[in-house]
Amino acid sequence: MKTDRTIFRTGAVSVLVLASAIFSVVACGGKGGKEMLASDAAQRVYVAPGDKDEVYLFTSGGFNGQVGVQGIPSGRLIKVIPVFSVWTENGYGFDEETKMMLNTSHGFLPWDDSHHLQASQTKGEQDGRWLFINGNNTPRIARIGLETFETEEIIEIPNSAGNHASPFLTENTEYAMAATRFSIPIPQRDIPVESYGKGEFNGTITMVAIDKKTGALSVKAQVLVPGYNYDLSHCGKGPSTDWCFFTTYNTEQAHKMLEIEASKNDKDFILAFNWKKAEACVDQGKARTVPGPHVINRRGHNSKPATSEKVATVKMLNPTDCPGIMFYMPTPKSPHGVDVDPTGEYIVGGGKLATVIPVHSYSKMIKAIEDKSNFTDERMGIPVLKYESTLAGEVQKPCLGPLHTEFDGKGYAYTSCFVTSEVVKWKLGSWEVVQNMPAWYSIGHLSIVGGDSAKPYGKYLVSLNKITKDRYLPTGPELVQSAQLWDISGSKAELLLDFPTLGEPHYAQMIPAALIKDKTKQIFELEKNEHPYAAKSEKEAKVVRQGNVVHVYMTSIRSHFKPDIVDLRVGDVAYFHVTNLEQDFDIPHGFAIYGAPLPNILIMPGQTLTVKYEPKQPGVYPFYCTDFCSALHQEMQQYIRVSR
């Protein structure tokens, strides 16, 4: 197969034609990858009844807006964590305690496009505390607590559009970094789109500070950068710990037909950002205060309702006011991924239209910065370094469409290749390809257990494939997306399993179960419930009327609710505050009202949740438990009487 650079000089249209041709050949191969299967694959993925998986796989849901949780090696879906989209299964985004989580400066937005996940780290190693995920459409970052597997906080990112390059973490989870995908006028205003190429559009790099104890998020500062499209990022480790790296494409600053107009330059950039210096400049008062309206939503602990904090301004730093915080490293071509190896020395670019995998050297970058003869240009005060001055090496002709690289901790890197539908395994230092691992089909990202940390756990690799085609039983035009599990513990990777995923996974994190499973909550302690309308015993169950506003302090326990009967009037605004009195693991109670325009809610043991109900017509309306809880579950039903 021809993979030299001339393929790409004819423009993106040729690339797409080539991709289509390759896919047709691969998809019609007929063998379906069975020749790659380990001979004992079934035994190696089998998890016997009652046994547990070794690893948690967290996948972004893409246009689904949520996070999927699957066990590895079995591939079994074990939970969906609601994040950016309302979720009728448990009432997330509908009950009064969680709908505040979806507030933004644009109002209530019950959906987003969730792309990238990062697990919290200490000294570059996974610590099992939190999981962070971005909202790509309306820029947001969410923090998920791995004690409860619930979304605990969502922060909006101002002065940005297309929050794709986030939420990538510094080595000790001091910051989550976010960058602009779609550059926009900053401040936002009505100007001709054609002025994009005249420097009227900009991007931002946002430093989202993370409280070490609570995980609380806040915008420390933003840095104004040229109006390119900023793609993925990763922060350094060890010697490079003070730096984060962002890929950029569309350095042509095209505003239409980007598949052609933004694919002309032979090289785009990796932006090297010294966040530690930027932090110092902000603390020294070198950033100016600018408009930056955004909302921070925090879910209360111990059943406290969520809160929404509106923030009007942010600190904005210009690179010229803080020299030495940013440098552009040229890298081929239209890069998507940038990944830092476990030692912190190698920075790997993933050029979608490149025929090589470039590997930059952190130590060479520092030397190049010290010698200004390596500066070839300047963009908004950001020096551009010579390509050769930072280059450690290139993986020659590895594949077509390299995107994303992770590491096994044993000296090998694995890069996903979209166009040729494969993962290539190559050796750090010698840059030689040692194995080509076919993917079925059109792999986007991949995940290794701890593969982007300072201490990869290796063993398993999951490829996240964009096209399912013939992998499962057909279900009409819309097909579930596919993942494939590989064992990478030996000298040669072996295919173990195909399994479906939630939504469209763009990215994933695999975390050893041992880091999480023994820390997870089983119940919420009833005595610690701080909800202002909690009823902690049936004696406290009551109905309180304040004009046409009615508060129902309700309890649920196997197998009844209290109060038994609730009297309301047409025009009332009723709040049902339901407290689950159970203190046993895995005994939630559901709550649903006949004819109410709101879904079921699920209340965990010891928790209080609230639904708002406004009766419109007189009558008698049953309410009941929707989650099977006992032999008398069917009897767990009572009535609301509505009068004029």
UniProtKB/TrEMBL annotation:
<dbReference type="Pfam" id="PF18764">
    <property type="entry name" value="nos_propeller"/>
</dbReference>
<dbReference type="InterPro" id="IPR041114">
    <property type="entry name" value="Nos_propeller"/>
</dbReference>
<protein>
    <submittedName>
        <fullName>Nitrous oxide reductase apoprotein</fullName>
    </submittedName>
</protein>
<dbReference type="InterPro" id="IPR008972">
    <property type="entry name" value="Cupredoxin"/>
</dbReference>
<dbReference type="GO" id="GO:0046872">
    <property type="term" value="F:metal ion binding"/>
</dbReference>
<dbReference type="GO" id="GO:0030313">
    <property type="term" value="C:cell envelope"/>
</dbReference>
<keyword id="KW-0479">Metal-binding</keyword>
<keyword id="KW-0186">Copper</keyword>
<dbReference type="InterPro" id="IPR015943">
    <property type="entry name" value="WD40/YVTN_repeat-like_dom_sf"/>
</dbReference>
<dbReference type="InterPro" id="IPR011045">
    <property type="entry name" value="N2O_reductase_N"/>
</dbReference>
<dbReference type="InterPro" id="IPR051403">
    <property type="entry name" value="NosZ/Cyto_c_oxidase_sub2"/>
</dbReference>
<dbReference type="InterPro" id="IPR026468">
    <property type="entry name" value="Nitrous_oxide_Rdtase_Sec-dep"/>
</dbReference>
